[in-house]
């Protein structure tokens, strides 16, 4: 416990005691100043003090007003030096109107508007000389190539004979397809005009399709002929023959039913021989049926 007085936080340490005394003195001084201000305020509320304060405020206001009046006089003098203008409304675009900027319109907007109007007019208006101005369609022009195009096509031809033959074969096939799909050729054909030589050239696929059509037509003809012969032969039979055949079928069916009911071997054997399993779908059942058939 002897080391306790040496601690800085000890209450009865000398430094702490001195600090407490200083704080108390400062607090007392602040309290005295506060009381003095309160007393001064209380004494200032007297009539003389109020009049003195009011006079002080008036003097201060007069000084401020004099400074303002001097500044206003200076401004009036400066404005008197500037030439006066007649009173009129404020126009923020006076310079622009004087330069003539508002008289015209935006040229770019006018150009775009005119282009849109022209485009719409071309769409809805039909001109009589339009066909003369436009180029002819590609299917009405001559098939022959110009000199420049012939040179370009000749450059594309390979030097190798095999490749050259393949190239010409491919080119011939392309030209044949073009001729086949040419609208002008279709129009000429429908009008009974002379057909071009290329339209007679048909590919193997077209020939096979035509051969198939001929075969189907022949089959249909044969089928109709056979059907006609059967119909004629059946019609040639008399009613008595048809009745006799029906009676024979019924008798055979009745005999077979009686044989099955009696359980004769002939009906069972015929039934077994007629109904047999297929090994593709039922291999196990097929093998069992074959074994049973062998035992019998």
Automatic annotation (TrEMBL):
Basic and acidic residues composition bias: residue spans: 21-37, 48-78, 110-122, 145-163, 174-183, 203-213, 240-256, 285-296
InterPro entries recorded: CIR_N_dom, LENG1-like
Compositional bias per record (Basic residues), positions renumbered to this chain: 164-173, 214-228
Compositional bias ranges of the Low complexity kind: 229-238
Organism domain of life: Eukaryota
Every CBF1-interacting co-repressor CIR N-terminal domain range: 8-44
Annotated stretches, region: Disordered: 21-296
Pfam families on file: Cir_N (PF10197)
Name the UniProt record assigns to this protein: CBF1-interacting co-repressor CIR N-terminal domain-containing protein
Taxonomic source organism: Mortierella isabellina
């Amino acid at each position: 416990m002897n080391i306790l007085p040496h601690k800085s936080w000890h209450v009865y340490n000398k430094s702490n005691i001195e600090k407490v005394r200083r704080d108390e003195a400062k607090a007392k001084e602040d309290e005295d100043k506060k009381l003095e201000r309160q007393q001064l305020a209380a004494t200032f509320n007297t009539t003389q003090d109020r009049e003195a304060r009011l006079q002080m405020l008036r003097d201060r206001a007069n000084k401020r007003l004099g400074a303002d009046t001097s500044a206003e006089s200076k401004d009036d003098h400066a404005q008197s030096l500037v030439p006066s203008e007649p009173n009129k409304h404020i126009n923020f675009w006076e310079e622009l109107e004087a330069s003539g900027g508002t008289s015209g319109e935006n040229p770019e907007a006018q150009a775009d508007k005119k282009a849109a109007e022209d485009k719409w007019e071309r769409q809805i208006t039909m001109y009589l000389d339009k066909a003369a101005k436009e180029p002819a369609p590609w299917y009405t022009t001559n098939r022959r190539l110009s000199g420049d195009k012939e040179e370009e096509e000749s450059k594309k031809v390979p030097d190798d004979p095999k490749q050259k033959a393949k190239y010409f074969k491919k080119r011939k096939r392309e030209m044949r397809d073009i001729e086949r799909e040419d609208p002008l050729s279709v129009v000429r054909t429908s009008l009974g005009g002379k057909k071009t030589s290329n339209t007679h050239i048909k590919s193997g696929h077209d020939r096979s399709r035509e051969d198939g059509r001929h075969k189907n037509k022949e089959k249909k003809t044969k089928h109709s002929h056979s059907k006609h012969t059967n119909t004629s032969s059946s019609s040639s039979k008399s009613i008595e023959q048809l009745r006799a055949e029906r009676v024979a079928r019924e008798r055979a069916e009745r005999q077979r039913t009686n044989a099955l009911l009696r359980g004769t071997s002939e009906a069972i054997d015929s039934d077994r021989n007629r109904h047999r399993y297929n090994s593709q779908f039922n291999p196990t059942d097929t093998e069992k049926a074959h074994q049973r058939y062998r035992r019998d």
